[in-house]
Amino acid sequence: MNRLASILRRSSLIAACAALLAGPALAGPSAIVEDLKGKLDKLDVMDYVEPGQVVQLKPGDVLVLGYLKSCVRETIAGGKVTVGEEQSAVDGGKVERAKFACDGGKLQLSAEQAGKSGAMVFRKKPTDKPGAAAEAPQVTIFSTVPAVSAAAPGQLTIERIDQAGQPVSVKMTAAKMDLAKAGVKLEPGGTYRAAIGEKKVVFAVDAKATPGAGPLAGRLIQF
Fold first, then answer.
1. 27-41, 135-149, 155-169, 174-188: least confidently modelled range
2. Exposure on the CB side of residue 20, measured as CA atoms within 13 A
3. pLDDT at 39 (0 to 100)
4. What is the reported pLDDT for 210?
5. Burial zone of 74 (CB within 10 Å; 0-12 exposed, 13-18 middle, 19+ buried)
6. The whole model's pTM is what?
7. What's the Rg (C-alpha) of the chain?
8. How big is the CA angle at 82 (ends 79 and 87), to the nearest 5 degrees?
9. Which contacts (CB < 8 Å, 24+ apart) does range 113-118 have?
10. Between these two residues, 132 and 71, which has the higher pLDDT value?
11. Which of 121, 47, 55 is nearest to 84 (CA)?
């Protein structure tokens, strides 16, 4: 029994050391910058922010965040902002929160991406149709105007796949782009395939999607 207890203690010690060496789990981005007013170092529209990240706003600065999981949009004026999982903690400033339609929970982060680029991947919805998984919508947007975030600029093509339609082609001069600026308008209830090079994302436009631009987190297509 003494030998067994010694083995168990040694195993527990090894496991604890391994956990310490591995460090804390990577949480990944929890929100996207929807808009801002003022000059904020290393932060721009469509940038991702992570839990624990601190943003100091000067008087007159305004930061708008869209939380990807909770579908909460925050308009923050001044103060110290500490990004959370589902909402921010604001000290010395004012914050207004509003819910919006988004595909919260459909975004997940791989360990490799969390450690390197912070890019996000979409989890496919289950389907009962054999062979249909590749064309099943991976995410739903709630506006007829998508916003796209990719690893690099390139030629973007959006093609409707649930029925015939005219493909849309946009040259992205930046890795992140709000397609409202390119005049792109999709149809509510449609299913589309977006492609940049060899990367593809299949997405659906909600049947009750509102026309025009809305919160970025509710209309984001991420490659």
1. 27-41
2. 6
3. 82
4. 84
5. buried
6. 0.74
7. 21
8. 105
9. 113/28, 114/26, 114/27, 114/28, 115/26, 117/151, 118/28, 118/29, 118/48, 118/50
10. 71
11. 55
E-strand stretches of 28-82 = 31-37, 48-49, 54-67, 72-82
- Indicate if the pLDDT at residue 89 is higher than 60: yes
* Alpha-carbon dihedral sign for residues 162, 163, 164, 170: negative
Cβ pair 65, 88 in contact under 8 A: yes
Chain centroid to Cα 168, Å, comes to 23
Please report, in angstroms and rounded to a whole number, the separation of the first and last CA atoms in the chain. Answer: 56
Tokens 């001044």 identify what position? 78
Residue identified by tokens 């509102």 is 210
* Dihedral of alpha carbons 194, 172, 116, 64, sign: negative
CA distances from 190 to 37, 160, 187, 207 (A): 35, 7, 6, 8
Residue at token pair 């589309």: 192
Whole-angstrom distance, CA of residue 111 vs CA of residue 115:
6
**SS3 state at 122:** strand
Q: Report, as an integer, the average pLDDT of 14-43.
A: 68
Residue 121 scores a pLDDT above 80:
no
pLDDT(20) > 50: no
How does pLDDT run across 172-202, given as a tens digit for each residue? Answer: 999 999 999 889 999 999 999 999 999 999 9
